[in-house]
Amino acid sequence: MGELRVLIVGGGIGGLSAALSCARQGFDVEVFEQASALGEVGAGIQLSPNCVRVLHDLGLESALRDVAFLPDGTEMRDWKSGAVLSSTELGDYAVREYGMPYYHVHRADLMSVLAEAVADAEKICLRTNAAVTGVHDADGKPSVVLRDGTAAGDVVVGADGIHSVVRQELFGAEAPTFTGNVAWRGLVPVDRLPQGLIRPMATAWWGPGKHFVHYYVRRGALVNCVCVVEKEGWEIESWTEKGDHAELKSDFAGWHETIETLIDRMDPDSCFKWALFDRPPMDKWGKGAVTLLGDACHPTLPFMAQGAAMAIEDGAVLARCLASGGDIAESLQKYEDLRRDRTARIQKGSRRNADIFHARGLKAMARNLVAKRAAGKTLDWVFRYDPLSAHTM
User: Could you tell me the domains of the chain?
Assistant: First the structure.
């Protein structure tokens, strides 16, 4: 099916990786991005072995290693004492156990790697300033509606994020639910920190009603910080909304000195916050020759570090299902069937982790005991998954 024409709405991590996976199968791909240029906010991202399989298969290993940091492991710590509650080995162990490394990457660096690969791909046409306002599917021949006309193809993939136009066109508008959590993010240059303060780990500090995550990105030059607080009265769902550094400092007052040091050394003008909204798993992702991918169909709270990984997996499975031949609608249904339960499990697990991380009192004490026993085991099913062979199931 090398002559297949795939239209992808959205030029984010999910859209670009899906475009590369489809082009790898010989399809002609057109990507429609509403922004004038590809870009990404200044935040970190964790790439676990399950999605790294796809990125390496796409020929991106060398480019990723040039910009990534390879952590030794993950650890959970007590918010006040700093005691390690649980730890998981990564580094060389991840390669031995899962066949792939675990990366920490600045989101902008990952986007640059993907964008360069897309620019080099003869089978991919990227259109910026191309906002899609609607989708049509007449007799199995779908098209996207733009401000200045339409574009027709054989398949339309909505990879246009949590506020997906394609999803709304297919299933109507759906109001999200505010989770009661607000997330902060910021980057700290390592040269502003005391030497050795931050270990080469992805570290989550668990506290009552809030938690703080930090890890290195950009080959260890920056520390990425994500801080989540239960609070009401602020419900702006945007990754580019500036936050008040003094408010962040107040939110984590009295926490371990490592956390207070990280907050103190952040650039006050580079603190951002966004409200976390939840959407339930979808029973159906597409209709006919139109389907969804990534946050458009399974937006995931950031408590398992799997949001981008699921989108990258989606693209690989989608491309291989289409390449298997046969009716397009049937191929898209197979893609959906293969992906729906796994992504729903990730969504539900991420939601559950919000309660676990923020436990108080006796519940927190019980959590800590369970965490020590379960160390290194809880994400084994996530990391072992192989998107490159899922279509054969």
Answer: 5-175+279-388 (3.50.50.60)
